[in-house]
């Protein structure tokens, strides 16, 4: 059922669809139809629990089965600004943290927040999607996990530009000094902005880019008539914190009244309910747990301690140090350390230089306009 957001398609069994409490839209005139084989039991997973579905044929029956999958969304009803939502959703301390992320990013870099729409050129689209894929691979590789859309990536890449061109999708990008550091592929549906796939450059992790993205996307939603920001399935902590509408997904089963469809439908409903019961008992997590256990088997606790970090005097450098290119090439692994320094010292990227000791290889110094830091790799 994510095809509802991703492709603006709906099973041809439905006449109208929409959020509960709102006037539903005409599915037959405003959405592409997804054919259901005549006389068959139709089964669709991951339907948002807050959506209402009206059957076209009164001879059909719809069964909605709660799934052990939770969704996260933000309803902006009553909010004029993103800060209005922060005021409603968060306590003072957490509001300050989110605002600090935004202000610190803007202070350290020349930032741009761009929602690319129908004018996005094909080559620019492909470049941004390649950047997004690289971000996903690095982030999930770090976590030793697979991204939920990895198997669908080729189809998403092939189809999304056409949706962007038709104003049914967009690419939100955070640029720092002209470089994409966070990208979200969004789908548009009836006042809902669905952030389907998003990721960021993990070198900038200190800046809380997940929070910055949501804050800036809420600004865009409010400026462009979108009431709901949908973050989809997956219970990451930051999603839970931001969401004021946490809901269960549902599995929809549609069938004709009468024999033999009733018998087939009972088997299908029973199969789904058994599967969801097993998921509720965490049976589906056993393979992942075993895989994680074997992946970490025999590893030492100090495999990646990182460098020894200490503050330094930004003045008084002598000839024992030589500058290195930390942005690319063999010293690019220093990027995350430099960005951590920028965040904590409130320096600007344009003022930072990195040096390596001639006497002690593996010893580096990050120097800004006001502060400095030494890194000592053992």
Topology of helices and strands:
Layout lengths: L2 H4 L2 E3 L2 E6 L5 E2 H4 L1 E3 L7 E7 L2 E5 L4 E16 L6 H8 L2 H17 L2 E6 L5 H22 L9 H13 L3 E8 L2 E11 L2 E9 L8 H15 L4 E6 L3 H6 L2 E12 L4 H20 L5 H10 L12 E5 L8 E3 L11 H11 L7 E5 L5 E5 L4 E5 L2
Parallel strand pairs: 1-4, 11-12
Antiparallel strand pairs: 2-3, 2-6, 5-13, 7-12, 7-13, 8-9, 9-10, 10-11, 14-18, 15-16, 16-17, 17-18
Helix pairs in contact: 4-7
What does this structure look like?
The protein is of the alpha+beta class and 378 residues long. The protein folds into 3 domains: 3-68 and 247-284, no CATH class; 78-226, Gcn5-related N-acetyltransferase (GNAT) (Aminopeptidase), CATH 3.40.630; 308-376. It has 11 helices and 18 strands. The protein has helices at 3-6, 27-30, 82-89, 92-108, 122-143, 153-165, 209-223, 237-242, 261-280, 286-295, 335-345, and strands spanning 9-11, 14-19, 25-26, 32-34, 42-48, 51-55, 60-75, 111-116, 169-176, 179-189, 192-200, 228-233, 245-256, 308-312, 321-323, 353-357, 363-367, 372-376. Helix 4 (92-108) crosses helix 7. The mean pLDDT is 89.
CATH class of the largest domain: Alpha Beta
Q: Helical proportion? A: 25-40%
CATH T-level fold name of the largest domain = Aminopeptidase
**β-strand amount:** 25-35%
- Overall pLDDT: 89
Number of domains: 3
The low-confidence parts are none
Please give the largest β-sheet: 8 strands, mixed
SSE pattern, N- to C-terminal: HEEEHEEEEHHEHHEEEHEHEHHEEHEEE
Per CATH, the superfamily of the largest domain is Gcn5-related N-acetyltransferase (GNAT)
């Amino acid at each position: 059922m994510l095809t509802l957001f991703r492709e603006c398609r709906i099973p041809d069994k439905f006449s109208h669809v929409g959020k509960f409490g709102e006037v539903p839209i005409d599915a037959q005139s405003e959405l592409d139809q997804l054919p259901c084989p005549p006389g068959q039991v139709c089964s669709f997973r991951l339907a948002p629990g807050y959506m209402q579905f009206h059957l076209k044929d009164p001879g059909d029956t719809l069964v909605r089965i709660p799934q052990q999958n939770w969704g996260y969304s933000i309803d902006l009803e009553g909010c004029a600004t993103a800060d209005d939502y922060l005021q409603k959703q968060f306590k003072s301390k957490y509001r300050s943290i989110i605002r600090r992320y935004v202000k610190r990013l803007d202070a350290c870099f020349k930032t741009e927040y761009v929602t690319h729409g129908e004018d996005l050129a094909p080559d620019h689209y492909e470049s941004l999607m390649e950047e997004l894929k690289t971000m996903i691979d690095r982030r999930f590789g770090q976590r030793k996990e697979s991204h939920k859309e990895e198997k669908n990536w080729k189809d998403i890449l092939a189809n999304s530009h056409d949706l962007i061109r038709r104003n049914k999708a967009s690419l939100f990008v955070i640029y720092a000094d002209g470089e994409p550091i966070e990208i979200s592929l969004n789908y548009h549906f009836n006042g809902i902005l669905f952030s389907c796939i998003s990721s960021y450059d993990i070198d900038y992790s200190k800046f809380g880019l997940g929070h910055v993205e949501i804050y800036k996307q809420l600004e865009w939603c409010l400026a462009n008539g979108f009431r709901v920001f949908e973050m989809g399935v997956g219970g990451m902590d930051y999603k839970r914190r931001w969401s004021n509408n946490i809901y269960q997904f549902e599995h929809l089963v549609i069938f004709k009244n009468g024999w033999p469809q009733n018998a087939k439908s009972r088997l299908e409903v029973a199969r789904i309910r058994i599967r969801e019961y097993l998921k509720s008992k965490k049976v589906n997590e056993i393979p992942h747990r075993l895989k994680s256990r074997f992946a970490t088997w025999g590893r030492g606790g100090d495999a990646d301690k990182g460098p020894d970090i200490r503050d330094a005097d930004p003045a008084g450098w002598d000839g024992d140090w030589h500058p290195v290119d930390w942005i690319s090439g063999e010293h690019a692994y220093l990027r995350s350390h430099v960005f951590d320094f920028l965040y904590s010292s409130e320096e600007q990227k344009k003022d930072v230089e990195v040096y390596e000791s001639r006497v002690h290889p593996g010893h580096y110094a990050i120097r800004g306009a006001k502060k400095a830091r030494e890194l000592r790799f053992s």
